[in-house]
Each structure stands twice: as structure tokens, then as C-alpha cells.
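Hi! If you just cloned this repository, the fastest way to understand the data is to look at a raw example. We've pasted two of them here, unedited. The first protein comes first, obviously.
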Amino acid sequence: MAHPLRDRNFRLLFAGRAVDALGDAVSPAALTLAIVIATRSSAGLALVLACALLPRVTLLPLGGVVVDRLGPRRVAMAAAVVSGAAQLFIGLLLLAGHIDFPLIAVAAAVKGAASGFDTPATLPLVAGTTDGDGRQAANALMGIASSATSLAGPALAGVLIFTVGAGWAFILDAATFAVSAATLAVIKV
């Protein structure tokens, strides 16, 4: 059985998804700390988090249908571009010193909606870039990367927030989505 990282397509997918997962792990901690530090309001934070979660959960079934119709690579690329734009918008707002709940809530909802389309694309992408024998190892690698970034992301967010500001954590997340979209653009599924 060949190791899945020997395949160029899976290697690119894995690298893009791992970088993207790190950015996704940075932004929630950055959002939490930015809003709580700036406003001392847990209600505002709850509203923004709900605005991100509800579209994601609501659109997951539709996301699966769209992935089946249009293909996982195309849907994941579009979701990465939309998510990156939403995170860039939040980052620029924070860098400008604006903690505007309605704008941040709308951007969080857009990012959540994009995530509802991206999540169903992951397994077909792994299946499309590995052969049957290496699929179990590929899924294990994706899980390890997800767990590692879940641990490293909040720590990186803390460093960014307390050194250069919360806005830069969102700019980093936007950049990770750009990396993910770029890797998706060059792989063959």
C-alpha cells in the first residue's frame, strides 16, 4: 500500500486543508477575544456566533446536493473564496477599529453559509485524490491535521491578538483560504 502523501494531488489537498484548518482555528478565538475585550459583551458574541452557526447547519444538506451536482473541487474552491472574502472583511473592520455587530454578524453568516457547502466536499475530495488502499490512511492524516490545528490555532490567535491585534488573525485566516483555493485549483480529482 502506497502512502497517500506520495500522491501529488492528495499532498496538495492535505496541505491546503491543513493550512485552512489552522486559519479556521485561529478566527473563533480571535473573534471571541476581540469582541469581549472591545465591548465586554457576551450577548454580542453570542449573536455573532449564532449568525455563523445557523446558516452552516441549515445549508449542510443543500451543500451535499450541490457537491453532488457540481463536483467537490469546484464547490470547495467557491466556498474558500467566499469564506476568505468574509474573513478579510472582518479583519479589515477590526483593523480600522470598528466593532460593528451588524456588519460582523453578516460577514460571519456569509462565512457560515460557505462552510455549509465546503464541509460536504471534504470526503469526496479525499476519495477523489487517493486510491482505495490509501483512503483510510488519508482520512487518518486529515483527522490528525484537524486535531493538531485545533490545538495550535487558539494559541496562535492569542499571540496575534496580543501582539498585532485581532484584525490580523482574520487577515491570516483569509490568507489560509486563499492557499486552500489555490491548492484546489491545481489538483485533479
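Ok, and the second one:
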Amino acid sequence: FCTNPIWVLKTRLMLQTHVSTNPTHYKGTWDAFRKIWRQEGIKSFYAGLVPSLLGLFHVAIHFPVYERLKMTFKCYGDSDLRSERTLHLGRLILASCCSKMVASLITYPHEILRTRMQLKSSLPHTVQKRLFPLIKNTYQREGFRAFYSGFATNLFRTVPASAITLVSFEYVRDHITSLNDNILSPP
């Protein structure tokens, strides 16, 4: 809720154009903020909020799938003893990448819907600013594939970031756990 205005500004700045019947031009973030505030009101900063909230399901899918894949791929090896466990970098990367792709595949349409709700468009307000009419309109005019436009590019951006984040977390957690074990049970 607090960050939705930032997403609206980002989307508008990224997709501003000078080549349409309604060209937009923002000189920067503050200029975009002022123009949107004056011309469209505060409500515009919350365009796409419902699809953004649906994006929370991404995390609810990503992390449980990741935890399951860590066990399936035996990312910590076969030993039950903490002192004998070793992290397997390749397996951790694979678990992270696969879980991110699964979560993205299931939840990506919310990003399309959020972006479309945040843009100025020629669609009637009753279609563009309401989730179910927008879904129906998008499907009727462009088909199912429209909900996945830019999906591959999104994966190229998010999968490596996920792998770096989750693998780093695993290594830091393992290191802290080892330090903790050494402090609590000295040799």
C-alpha cells in the first residue's frame, strides 16, 4: 500500500511517450509526481493496487517451492549431522531458479494487469481501472498470451537476482549457524 505510488511513478516514467495523441513528458520523479497529483488526483497513485496485492501470492509460492526443492535436490547433502553437512552451490542455484520460475509462471499476469491499470490509455475508465473488466477486455482483444507478454525478459531479470539472494542467504545462515554452534559447544 505504501509503495504503490512509487510503482505508478516508475511505470509512468518508463513508458512515457512523445508519439501519441496524448503525449506525456515528465522531467523526472518529482515532476511526474506533481503532474499526476494535479491532473489526476491522489487516487491515481493507487492504480493497480489490487493486482499488486495479488503479487503477494508470488512469495507464498516461491519460498515453499524453494524449501521443497532444497530437500529434493539435497542442497545440504545427505548427512543428518550438522557438522558433516555441506552446501551444494549448483543445487542451491537450481532450487532457487526453478522455484522462481514456478512462482513467476503462476503469478506473472498480475504484473501485466498492474501495469495496464497504472498507465493512461484509450480504454474506458470502467475497464482500465477495474480488475475483472480489464481481464475480460485483455483476453477478448489479445488472447491468453497477452497476460505473459514480457515474461521471458522478466525471467532474465528476476531469476539471477533470486539465485544470488537465496544462495547468499543460505551461505550466510550456514556460517552464522556454525559460529553459533562453536560458541555454544566449544571443543
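That's it. A detail worth noticing about the second one: The chain is about 65% helix and 0% strand.
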